[in-house]
Amino acid sequence: MKIAILPGDGIGPEIIEQAVKVLNTLGESFEMESAPVGGAGYAAHGHPLPEATLKLAQEADAVLFGAVGDWKYDTLERSLRPEQAILGLRKNLGLFANLRPAILYPELAGASTLKPEVVSGLDILIIRELTGDIYFGQPRGVREAPDGPFKGQREGFDTMRYAEGEIRRIAHVAFQAAQKRDKRLTSVDKANVLETFQFWKDIVTDVHKEYPDVALDHMYVDNAAMQLVRAPKKFDVMVTGNMFGDILSDAAAMLTGSIGMLPSASLDANNKGLYEPSHGSAPDIAGKGVANPLATILSAAMMLRYSLGKAEQADRIENAVKKVLAQGLRTPDIYEAGTTKVGTAEMGEAVVKAL
Amino acid sequence: MKIAILPGDGIGPEIIEQAVKVLNTLGESFEMESAPVGGAGYAAHGHPLPEATLKLAQEADAVLFGAVGDWKYDTLERSLRPEQAILGLRKNLGLFANLRPAILYPELAGASTLKPEVVSGLDILIIRELTGDIYFGQPRGVREAPDGPFKGQREGFDTMRYAEGEIRRIAHVAFQAAQKRDKRLTSVDKANVLETFQFWKDIVTDVHKEYPDVALDHMYVDNAAMQLVRAPKKFDVMVTGNMFGDILSDAAAMLTGSIGMLPSASLDANNKGLYEPSHGSAPDIAGKGVANPLATILSAAMMLRYSLGKAEQADRIENAVKKVLAQGLRTPDIYEAGTTKVGTAEMGEAVVKAL
Ligand SMILES: CC(C)[C@H](C(=O)O)[C@@H](O)C(=O)O
Ligand SMILES: CC(C)[C@H](C(=O)O)[C@@H](O)C(=O)O
What is the CATH number of domain A1-96+263-355? Predict the structure, then answer.
């Protein structure tokens, strides 16, 4: 089995290094090959997603991704900026299903800005559609406004679009994920305003007929943003479009106060996937050896479970992470008085030892 | 001066009644005329925004609006549902600037789901563009997908659009609001993905040249949703488009835990405005006399300040509200042990007395 390793920018390389160390401890024989992506891709080959990197990702059984982005690339034109790599990988690999768990580890309840009783035991799974919506819809651009009160002026425009098959396949992923959990699914839309999301709601309602054991409810996106703050534990699985999912999954992650702990998976129709931490490239702390590698290590666990058919190894890693937390080891982002502050490499070592 | 009073549905009529009582105590001679809107408009005239209601709102100097929506209208076709009234009023009256303060009253710090140190003293002003964006952009609908991997299938679609003049005018409102506060403005966009919001960012940056005394920063919408949870007090004024503003202003309101306290203003180019509480119609508690009328009373204060040129009267009302809070009076939504629980009418009476 072949894993493409794409460390990227900022803290990407150092956290990926720890995850690779953990994978190497499992006693499996994975073929791993790494390639530059994001700003590193641009620096090496003049493009955030160099052809060879894309080819490697396409040929691999799974992709382990660090993070991309650095201030030094901010002045590049948009098509060359690091984040285009992630959009390009999603689209080219057909990674339409983004799974973003928001889990609060009991030991880290204090890290949240929310009151403990509101978030302790939080365990939500947000499923975000990742290759459609206004992220990719054509036409888009800047033009002369063709009509309306500002006709003739310059205007920026984009197209939100969701086709029936696109909604059906993400709905199936969501209902099946709910079946494996508490069997409750909230579909988030804006059907009161958007044609796209009235259509979304209708199709999700139709797919629901195949999953009578799952309780489905529909919620407007503005209300969902409120309920995540008010009573997040009421949610089990949420499913939504690319744009709303971008916003809500980040808000949900931040509820835990420990985004350095949260993995993510982006899957295609055949369970091939790209796995990455939910946090960013944090260029401000890059190279200092203080970044939290656990989200990346947990992403590797998701990879073992969803793409490589090694659920037991995934469990082993997840248990090892719980163990190091129970031992009181903390990187600076999750440090609290009374615990032991460690760096990136020490944390990775501790997980290896716990295995 | 003429005020159009549109009570609407659910708790709308009972909270509006208290605000009207307060306005009548000021010793000013306002002409007030009321008309049905939302579900009540549909029930009376077969349309959520009856012609006579729209005419009244157009002729008045300001509109005081309760809330719309009730489950009984959920099965109506979309164009007849209560919330169409609010979209119609915004568009027809040209109410492009929505001002949504998120303020946490010190006495109510306990109501928030966030830790007191994270939210105490919170005072953010969110300025949401209200007549453009994907809310109104044409074309939109359900069609056969004209291209892409799902070509030929049914798809829902909408158009996000912002013209230069539309962005300029809301940017001016935002910079001027920031000048009257802490002189910090955060423009929220998704310029890394959307053409509309790269254009938005460019225009806001250009308008900034006219306001060198205001510090401007740009933030992606997903990050803004996170920062609202992580460190909301870092914000002063935020400005964004209609869709992102819908989501972020509701999230920000919920941070306070006391959305029953939060007013809003929606202004046109000449300071004519529609004023309404930030909360909804709450049909579950309608008619029970337990709804919190303070958001509506504070909306009336905003109306006095922004549309009717009576800033002193606005101050009087706001001080009266602070006084009743200091007296320990609380409607059930903000009740805590050690305070005095009162109903809708008693709360209105208390404000009248405090005046
Ligand atoms: C970097 C950006 C294009 C990306 C997105 O908007 O999808 C990021 O925010 C994410 O959620 O992975
Ligand atoms: C009712 C709905 C159309 C409306 C909106 O989306 O603008 C509401 O959520 C609001 O924020 O006033």
Answer: 3.40.718.10
